[in-house]
Design goal:
The protein is an alpha+beta fold. The protein is built from 15 helices and 11 strands. The strands form 2 sheets. Strands 6-7-5-8-4-3-10-1-11 form a 9-stranded mixed beta sheet. The two termini are 28 Å apart.
Amino acid sequence: MKQLRKIVWKNITKRPVRSLAMIFLAAVLSLSVFAGTIVVSALRNGFHSLEDRLGADIMVVPYEAITKEDLKGMILQGNTGYFYMDAKYLDEISKMEGIANISPQYYLASVKAGCCSLPVEIVGYDPETDFTITPWIKRSNGGEVGYRDVVVGNDLNAFVGDTLSFFGENVHVVAKLDKTGTAYDTQVFTTKETIRTLIDASLNKQLNQYANIHSGNVISCILINVADGYDVDDVMGEINIHNKKLRAVRTTNMISGISDSLAAVSDVAGMITVIVWVVALVIMIVAFVMMTGERKKEFGILRVMGASKKKLSALVLMEGIGLSLVGSLVGVCLGAVILLPFSGYIEMKLSIPFLLPHIGFILLIGGVAVLLTILAGSITAGISAFRIAKIDTGAILRSGE
């Protein structure tokens, strides 16, 4: 066996062009499986994270937010923007039938100016009633968020202990969210008391487009969970009928477009993975069979020297498995280098939430990609080994091939 391994090593190293070609094909196989699976998984994770991030059945906003603002861009992609409505609507809607949970949110966009550390979307919430933001903060090991405390999204260049300034008011970073693959990653979160201070500061500096508001009398949106036994559409319809200046929207409708895009991208990614894998496998089989045919004289000489057909078949199998192993590892490493550091860029280009799976799943898929590639290499080498078993040694040597 040791002698056989030496022959295999010499065959691989003495024919670098052939070996590199097989390694390349194996790398394409493993890359397609690894990258395709991770991309589809990251898209699905991002979508589920977005569903959790919305965390409400209904969102109520001022009517002009639907007609004048890119609401989906703000809520789903983190584009900066803000709008306000009278806080009295919160009390009015909370008295309606079918309301299980209700909580206000407050929006404020910082500006690209000396007054603000970051041009970001600032989201205020009520800790006593909130059911969408607080769970994310707790998952990220965030403690109590007090007055002038903020929690920053994972993609922002700010860290626990930093002091940020918005409209001349200093706030302190007390927690940083885990990666969510959603707009949360580029937003700043704080309590209603703090954001009211920031709204007043923006008004004082004349950097707020709503000049005639008072921070204590306005909110930006109302999030609602419908009680058991009530239909979401019925509750939403009641709100819209009785409040002409408001618009209640079903959160699932907001992400329906993303769901469609996710399905389309997943289908395309899956189809490309299968096509690439099949084409690379066919090319690998053809290439290996052709190379085996070119080595008939080599195999004939080895037979004369005493090598059995079984050993020749083992030789070819070991070469195929060895080259496939190296190629599969190259493909997985290349996929990791492409996907892991540039996941944010991929998300930006796709305009779809993109959340990479945990490291354990990534390692599992990498292992599966390696095993499938080695299996493909074994099948390829097995076909060649079957052809070797039929070689007529005497005829080959007499012909001078």
